[in-house]
Specification:
Blueprint (H helix, E strand, L loop, with lengths): L28 H5 L17 H5 L9 H17 L5 H17 L10 H13 L12 H37 L4 E6 L2 E7 H26 L18 H7 L9 H6 L2 H29 L3 E2 L18 H24 L13 H25 L1 E2 L1 H8 L6 H10 L4 H13 L4 H12 L9 H8 L1 H7 L8 H41 L3
Length: 514
């Protein structure tokens, strides 16, 4: 993924001998291709030395091999349609590209990157005319296009895993709208909630992750091809046509911006890091719940000890949790690579994509594993109910009740805090009322109401404000989650179908030449 200027209309300093050979001391492209693997770019002066392997990204470029072939095809088709190259030469180049695809990445000749290697392979098959495929473009806009072409597919894959995770969370919520569980702040018993309320809290967060990924996808899905090295080209190209052939929604207009910007990579990695952080929190909760006997992970998402046979460890979720750190590190690494780079192309950009590829793979897998773990976990309703009232977790409900019956909330808070120190049952609240108010509890509130407030089930049922844990408050949350899930599934399907339609259309155009 390296830099090269776009071809101009002529090659200054080139004269022809009577025999039609170049007399400027340069060998033809086909001669270079067959001479020690020098390729078609560097020529004699820059073709050797120990830095050649350091400069090469050919192995890392395996990921964008298919993308480069598609970009080449679209570019060659446009050149032919614009009359920049002849139809028969376009056909020979397109036929060579098909053969290279069949032979796959491993068959490519040595080169600095996949772009040079493919061009070299085309020239080996077609002859010097094969070099016309690179007319009116640079490896700068070429690689930027290949990255976007591949990354958009990867982002759609991650979006699909977020939808699967949301589906799993909604299913858990729908099955557990009345399953009482302890809620925590600072890992201390705080207030009783339901498993459904907990699951909906994560569904909302993952839903926003999906939205951020879709927004990032829209900015990825713009074509930089035609920006050339950075200053455009003298050829009468049709950038919109290339974008259409490749399934992009439009073009990155400014040629310098098109060839050199990698903000789409940084944004995508940041969004992936955000999603990894969401999923890490989910994993941490389930790990803690498993430790406390609230949930049992399926064996497929657990392992045992090599020495302690009784152990069942949630280590897949521990790895899910760790991915967030890797993703955050990639954001920092990519940010540091990009910061302060002058316009336009700099070789530093060759190191930028590794952060994004590693992150998208790891986060996609972590999200998929989390979805499977949630979908197959079993919740222990008895264990959850037994702990739902632990630590006087209904205290806030009692304080709210006292405030609703005329006490200032701070007075009610003080009274209930004293009751908590004395055991947190009705007698403790009554004794605290006598100390704080100088009157028995029943002089302020109906004892039956206090008993109900002390009951975790009744406490949850009373919290029926919008977004609360009461079953009737969770019902609209689930309706909203289902509606948003359906909408996002439709958006994903439309995006995927658009890419497939573009691939088929490009293939049909190619078939008209080969």
């Amino acid at each position: 993924m390296t830099e090269e200027s776009a071809h101009d209309r002529s090659t200054p300093g080139t004269a022809m001998t009577d025999g039609g050979e170049q007399s400027n001391g340069l060998r033809s492209s086909s001669e270079l291709c067959s001479d020690g693997g020098e390729g078609v770019v560097r020529r004699d002066r820059f073709s050797g030395g120990p830095a050649r392997s350091f400069l090469s990204s050919l192995s890392a470029d395996r990921r964008i091999f298919e993308a480069d072939l598609e970009v080449d095809r679209a570019h060659v088709l446009m050149l032919a349609e614009q009359g920049i190259i002849e139809d028969d030469i376009a056909g020979r180049i397109l036929t060579a590209l098909d053969a290279i695809e069949v032979d796959n990445h491993d068959s490519l000749p040595d080169g600095e990157d996949v772009h040079e290697a493919i061009e070299t392979a085309v020239i080996e098959r077609v002859g010097d005319d094969g070099g016309k495929m690179h007319t009116a473009r640079s490896r700068n806009d070429e690689v930027a296009t290949c990255i976007r072409y591949r990354l958009r597919e990867d982002v759609l894959s991650v979006i699909e895993t977020t939808l699967a995770l949301r589906e799993a969370l909604v299913a858990v919520a729908e099955a557990n709208t009345e399953t009482i569980m302890p809620g925590y702040t600072h890992l201390q018993p705080a207030q009783p909630i339901t498993v459904a309320h907990w699951a909906c809290s994560y569904e909302g967060a993952v839903r926003r992750d999906t939205a951020r990924l879709l927004e990032a996808y829209a900015r990825i899905n713009e074509s930089p091809l035609g920006g050339a090295a950075f200053a455009g080209t003298t050829f009468d190209i049709d950038r919109e046509r290339v974008a259409e052939l490749l399934g992009f929604d439009g073009v990155v207009e400014n040629s310098m911006d098109a060839s050199s910007s990698r903000d789409f990579l940084l944004e995508t990695t940041q969004v992936l890091s955000t999603h990894a952080t969401t999923v890490s929190g989910l994993a941490e909760d389930v790990i803690i719940f498993a430790n406390r006997g609230f949930v049992d992970l399926a064996d497929d998402y657990s392992s045992t000890s090599s020495i302690m046979p009784q152990k069942k460890n949630p280590d897949t979720l521990e790895l899910v949790r760790a991915v967030a750190g890797d993703a955050a590190g990639s954001v920092q690494g990519l940010t540091t690579t990009l910061k302060g780079l002058p316009r336009a192309y700099n070789r530093d950009l060759q190191r930028a994509t590794t952060h994004a590829w590693g992150t998208v793979d790891a986060v996609c897998e972590a999200s998929e594993v989390a979805a499977g773990a949630i979908a197959t976990a079993e919740w222990d309703e008895e264990a959850l109910a037994a702990e739902a009232g632990a630590g006087f977790s209904t205290a806030t409900g009692v304080a709210d009740l006292l405030a609703a019956n005329g006490l200032p909330f701070r007075t009610a808070h003080e009274l209930v805090a004293i009751a908590a120190e004395r055991g947190g049952d009705y007698d403790a609240v009554d004794a605290a009322a006598r100390d704080v108010l100088g009157d028995p509890l029943d002089s302020v509130v109906d004892p039956a109401a206090v008993e109900a407030a002390l009951d975790p089930v009744e406490s949850v049922a009373s919290r029926d404000s919008q977004g609360g844990p009461a079953p009737e408050a969770v019902a609209p949350q689930l309706e909203s989650a289902r509606r948003a899930l359906s909408d996002d599934e439709g958006t994903l399907e439309e995006a995927s179908d658009a890419l497939e339609t573009a691939r088929e259309a490009l293939r049909a155009e190619v078939n008209g030449y080969v």
